[in-house]
Amino acid sequence: MRSLPELSPPKVPDVHQPAKNLITQERNYKLITPLYGGGVEPSQADPITLIRGTSIRGQLRFWWRACRAGQFSDVKEMKTFEDKLWGTISDNKKEDTQSKVKVAVKVNYSGEAVRPFRVEQKKDRDGNPQYYSNEKPIPDVKIDEENRAPAYAVFPLRPEQEKQEIGMVTTPIIKGVSFTLKISFPEKLQISFPEKLQKEDIYIDVKKEVEAALWAWETFGGIGARTRRGFGAIQLVSINQNNKSLEITLPEFDGVETFIKDGLRIHVKSSKWPKDVPHLSHELNFKVVLTTVGKKGKRNFADAFDAWKHLINRLKNFRQERNNPSDKYHPGRSRWPEPDTIRNLTGQYIEKHKPKFHKEDKLNSFPRAAFGLPIIFEFKDRDKNNPSNPCREPRTTILTLSKSDRLASPLILRPFICKNGQTVGLAIILEGTQRLLDQKEILLSSNDKNRKKIKENLTVKVKKEEADRILKSDDKTKLLEKETDVLKAFLEWLVRN
User: Fold this and answer.
1) Are 237 and 222 in contact (CB under 8 A)?
2) Do 204 and 348 belong to one domain?
3) Residue 413 near residue 311 (C-beta atoms within 8 A)
4) Which of the residues in the chain have pLDDT under 50?
5) Are residues 335 and 397 in the same domain?
């Protein structure tokens, strides 16, 4: 019988061994503020896939544009480059481009569902239960703010008045989530441009492009919805690259401003930015908030929630400056000009709310549009049966862009964790979308089909004479100080004690 040959089986390849020229990283994150939305249903987290790779790819794509789009002459050139790097889906599947950056997500801890709102029976100032005339209890929405979310940030989850029922289960947010992002990409990549762009093939340093997006996302961004108001803020916990642990560089508590400026210098590449692309810049307008002022004077923030709550409350106080800010039962008339502008444009107002300036002054401005659109203006003393009643307040009025219902806020507020776990607050103003407001592309409308849309003479710019009229509740102090740029005025307000 013939003996069997002595053969050794082929060596099994190590599937974990990264290919040549391929960088593979595992980046571990935890959320330092709750996750808001991000699922299929609006304002709700996905019960099956809490964090999706496609969502993170979308975030990285946005922050890549914010850092690197300035190297292109126009949007078409940027889009060609972007699609080669991050992939694209077209109507014709043959033209789909697969992303060179591979992304996968593993949720390590799916967190805890917490409900910021609860509905109880309304009580008067003396604590007595309140009832309707038919003896049915009157519902009252309460905010469970502590370690959940600041009320002003989470207001979209507040139950609508007609749906409020005592003891109802309200929509939750998710606290304490942690996840691992596995990301892989080639070090270099050759890109061919279409003939109409008349560009030669170029080699790009993919590592630089991806690192810029990651740095900006980790510093300013987050996961889920309402990240510009601090929800889903992420903290990088560890990095493993090609099976080697990398050190994470965090700034000292008082070195965050330098950390951000250095990061902008390294990662932001610009000459002339494509039109209407939100972006960072080397001259980014931002503030780092180190402390808050309490009963015992200045103190450092206790944690991320403490810093976040401070930022949001300062925004609330600035945007809602009123006659009697300390009286929650009678907060008083707004100090901003928009309600009076609407009263003048519609010719509707009650005598005690007679506009503070005349229509002939042509101060038809909506400065708070700079914080994002839409803005819904509710007038308490309106006539629901006769919305056009000139002796009553205007109906509910909506301010939007003329060609779009929404303009994302250029203002980003979020906490940031430094070395040794110390926390600061960050506030930045993204550049690149102001043109849409400057061109008077805003309009007023309402849900009433009989109401004509008002488009003429509307602006978000504040003239100096109008800025001087926006006073704080003391009727002396100018809310905007010497600024006519509302966002810049807010940043100064934020750090002013």
Assistant:
1) no
2) no
3) yes
4) 1-2, 4, 7-19, 196
5) yes
As for how many domains the chain has, the answer is: 2
Whether residues 337 and 441 fall in one domain: yes
**What pLDDT is recorded for position 492?**
93
Instruction: Report d(CA 116, CA 158) in Å as an integer.
Output: 8
> In this structure, what CATH number is given to the domain that contains residue 84?
3.30.70
What sections of 119-272 are H helices per DSSP?
Answer: 206-220, 256-267
Q: Look at residue 125 in the predicted model and tell me its pLDDT.
A: 85
What was the pLDDT predicted at 438? 73
The whole-model pTM stands at 0.88
CA distance 132 to 390: 30
pLDDT at site 166 = 92
pLDDT at 440: 61
Query: What token pair was written down for 76?
Result: 């078409």
Structural domain containing residue 222: 22-111+176-254
Same domain, 292 and 423: yes
Interatomic CA distance for residues 372 and 369, integer angstroms: 5
**CB neighbours of 220 closer than 8 A, spacing ≥ 6?**
63, 280, 412, 414, 426, 428
* Same domain? 249 vs 298: no
Tokens of 326: 């300390």
